[in-house]
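Tokens for N-acetylmuramoyl-L-alanine amidase. Go.
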Amino acid sequence: MRKHTTAILLAFIFIIQAFVQGHAMTLEYDGGRHEYNGSIYDLYVNGSKIQTPLEPIIFNDRAVVPVREVFEALGATVGYEHDTRQVTIETNDTSIILTINQNTALVNGSRVSIPDGVAPKLIAKAGESAKTMVPVRFVSESIGMDVSFDNDLKRISVNSPRKDITLTNLTSSKVGTSSVKITVTADKAIESMSNPVLTSNNVYYTDIANATYKINNSYEINYGGVKTVRIGEHDTYTRIAVDLDRATSYDMQLSSDGKSVVITVSGAASTAVPTANPTASPTVKPSAAPTANPGNAGKKIVVLDAGHGGSDPGASGSLDGSVHQEKDITLSITKKVQSILQNNGITVVMTRSGDLYPTLTERAELANQQNAALFVSIHINSVENAPSASGAEIYYSASNNGDDYGATSKELASNILSEVIKQTNQRNRGVKTAEHVVTRSCNMPAALLEVGFITNEEELRNMLSDSWQTKVATGVANGIIKTWSEITVPVN
């Protein structure tokens, strides 16, 4: 009996270890079956999660991904020649030819070695069709794409190179007695638009990669099955969201010239005329201090940015039956940072002091117009299907990391994160780089702090605590003060 119990216990421990170490599955490649116990990654292309028949996996210490699903989503043309076993990936500027099981490739006619000898392979889950798996970083960077990895969240992100598009106009017009056509126009052709999605809350939306906007962020339609149209800017995309009201049909397409998103919705018959009245204006600057504040002349200024706000709630988390939004918690923490800094004689400008939504571009523009010494944005992290993800991390832009101000963005970020961890004893997820709009568009050193995970119940409970918010705020303020003595604002 004891031997039997011990055997069961050992088997149980082995199974648990397998789950801790990775995800067990049987893969077929190179004429045989192989057990895979490594990590499986989520895949995001231009900010949207992509579901693939075979998930991204680690092969010879390099991540490989299904070539067609990833790179066609990025606008490339992907082909496969069975006779030669060659994969072709073509964009307007680049042609790549890879051969199955060969660790070299032709890039625009020149033969190059694939790092670490990770050759493309035909890989299948047991009993399923094979997928052509290619090294994601090599291919992405060869065609000018940006790729990043988050090993903690097991996430790979591939993004088109930034070619910023600006949404410049929105119009609506009546079509028959019960339909409305809404046209959102950009200043140049839209290269990447996500497939439209209808949520359970009757919100019909699409995401435009690498876009900003210079129009209002909310329009009342109240016709043809549409209540409002909302525009929201995120770091790698701008979302066009249509709030439906008993719509019977809906469609969203790019115009023939690629410069407009055309939305057609039908609803109950109505005699009213759609007006597309703006309900809010993004051109109104944040309430704290626009450009001409004579009281700030000649002073060193810190601009504090409470993430999200207004029509953009940010991430959300549930605790004890209640839903809590990122925008409210970030504002509360940021106000505490403001108070601590002001008590230390530092002049502070807030991008928002209430439930407003200045665009990401406007937040950075405010800091530049104020000739600020430092810019700090406060956010809260989130992740799907990983409720145990925890800790604080901070980002700076590699393209805004000069030392013209006496300290770099990386130094500012390092100082803030170390002081926050000192106060909260959270897991330190590190100082990272990312090209967030608010940090890369600033002239001065800038950092974006993620104070924890709103999707982690323990961390959310902390975030709702006034004492814990004060700890975070104290850490942020101490990090700013630590950097402050090094800062000299250049004379324009």
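DSSP finds nine helices and 34 strands in the chain.
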